[in-house]
């Protein structure tokens, strides 16, 4: 099997998010960037399937500006065999990414897409579902376990009521949840080797995908500051306070 994994460059999860002074978006200048954590999990799972002999090649794909090359190198340092970089400075929406993945699938002929269930910058949780729809492939989202048996996928996914067990044929689209695995660290020798791995560069125009924005951001504001709580001594005082706030 050939597996394609998507890797996105986002603001590092440990950074404090700041809104630009002109309210047009989030400040990224001088801010530490890293691979989307759910995408790291997706890469790790593809590598584990390769180590078990189910996958022969893992291809990492990133989409965005030149700076995304570092994220692609990180994925290859973890163990991905090669990379594809769709170069664009345009802000990509989930539908754009799904269409670009579909075009890549037409030439790469993968058996499996493993994506993060969502990116931590927009929390859209849409790309995997859209891609499966465009490809007309079976999908399993928010997966916490996957095994290959008899040419089929045995999948466990997390739902509100507990765990759901699924069986899927191939090819398929999977999106990784937090508890699927613990991603490995890239070692220094592997980081050096990653620089020699092949990377194919493409553009949306070459792939025939229109990435003009469908959504216009009017204004971005920080969330309101949370007010301090108040301690009460009795249940009666609590109820009285809730009534004053109009909660009950």
UniProtKB/TrEMBL annotation:
GO CC term (a single one): mitochondrial matrix
PROSITE patterns hit by this protein: ETF_BETA
Ranges in coiled-coil conformation: none
Boundaries of every Electron transfer flavoprotein alpha/beta-subunit N-terminal domain copy: 23-211
Molecular-function annotations in GO: electron transfer activity
UniProt KW keywords: Electron transport, Mitochondrion, Transport
GO biological process: carboxylic acid catabolic process
Function: The electron transfer flavoprotein serves as a specific electron acceptor for several dehydrogenases, including five acyl-CoA dehydrogenases, glutaryl-CoA and sarcosine dehydrogenase. It transfers the electrons to the main mitochondrial respiratory chain via ETF-ubiquinone oxidoreductase (ETF dehydrogenase).
Similarity comment: Belongs to the ETF beta-subunit/FixA family.
Protein name as catalogued: Electron transfer flavoprotein subunit beta
């Amino acid at each position: 099997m050939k597996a394609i994994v998507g890797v996105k460059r986002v603001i590092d999860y440990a950074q404090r998010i700041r809104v630009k002074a002109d309210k047009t978006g989030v400040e990224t200048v001088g801010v530490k960037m890293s691979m989307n954590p759910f995408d790291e999990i997706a890469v790790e799972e593809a590598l584990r399937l390769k180590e078990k002999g189910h996958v022969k090649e893992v291809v990492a794909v990133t989409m965005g500006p030149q700076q995304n090359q570092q994220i692609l190198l990180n994925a290859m340092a973890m163990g991905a065999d090669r990379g594809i970089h769709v170069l664009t400075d345009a802000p990509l929406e989930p539908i754009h990414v799904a269409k670009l993945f579909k075009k890549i699938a037409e030439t790469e002929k993968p058996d499996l897409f493993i994506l993060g269930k969502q990116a931590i910058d927009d929390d859209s949780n849409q790309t995997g579902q859209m891609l499966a729809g465009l490809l007309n492939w079976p999908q399993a989202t928010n997966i916490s376990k996957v095994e290959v048996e008899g040419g089929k996928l045995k999948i466990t996914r997390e739902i509100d009521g507990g765990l759901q067990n699924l069986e899927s044929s191939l090819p398929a689209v999977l999106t990784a949840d937090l508890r699927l695995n613990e991603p490995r660290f890239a070692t220094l020798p592997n980081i050096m080797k990653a620089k020699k791995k092949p990377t194919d560069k493409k553009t949306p125009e070459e792939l025939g995908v229109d990435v003009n924005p469908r959504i216009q951001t009017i204004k971005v504001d920080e969330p309101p500051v949370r007010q301090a709580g108040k301690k009460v001594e009795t249940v009666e005082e609590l109820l009285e306070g809730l009534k004053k706030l109009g909660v009950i």
